[in-house]
Rhabdoid tumor deletion region protein 1
Amino acid sequence: MAHARISANLPPDIDPTKAPIAFGRRALPKLQEELHSPELLTQQRALMALCDLVHDPENVYQAIEIGFLDNLKTLLLHHDSTVRQKTTEILCVMAMHNVGR
């Protein structure tokens, strides 16, 4: 008879650096809340997820409407280099869209 084993390791298809995001119109407001978190890992995960979402022009428009640009400007001065790098990448992708210009 087979026995079930539960591993402490994550499955290989799950990326621990990406934040779980909400569906639809609630995704970006949830990520904005996570950017205000005092935990560095939560901020980094939110930035990784946001970087994937801003490739869609509709998400860029919604991010501008919500007020992400002010938050991203303050994150450019963050003490962590990963946060600064992903923030710069997000601003670059947003600037490439017609909506973000």
Summary: The chain has a mean pLDDT of 83. The CA atoms of residues 51 and 90 lie 5 Å apart. The helical segments are 27-35, 40-53, 57-66, 68-75, 81-96. Residues 81-96 form the longest helix (16 residues).
